[in-house]
Design a protein that fits this description.
The protein is of the alpha+beta class and 84 residues long. The chain is built from five helices and two strands.
């Protein structure tokens, strides 16, 4: 979602088409603060993001540290779907 503001100004029907209310297994991946993503993933969803002010290191090391690697995202998705 490139812009929360633009998304929020769309008609409700469009927002429900993009984020169907019946779909509760949602993951947001934000290589910044998790703040605000809870409203889009819902109570049953998860957010992978930073809970600190950041760190200094090579990008790959930071991605590993904060859980932004594809296998971590897939594992979380499988957990949300009830699969191990």
């Amino acid at each position: 979602m490139p812009s929360w503001d633009i998304f929020e100004h769309q008609p409700q029907a469009y927002r429900d088409e993009v984020l169907p209310p019946a779909v509760t297994a949602r993951i947001a991946v934000e290589q910044g603060s998790e703040l605000g993503w809870d409203r889009y993933v819902g109570a049953g969803g998860r957010v992978i993001g930073m809970r600190t002010f950041g760190a200094s290191a090579p990008l790959k090391e930071l991605q590993r540290k904060f859980g932004f690697e594809p296998d971590k995202v897939v594992a979380m998705a499988m957990e949300l779907l009830g699969r191990k």
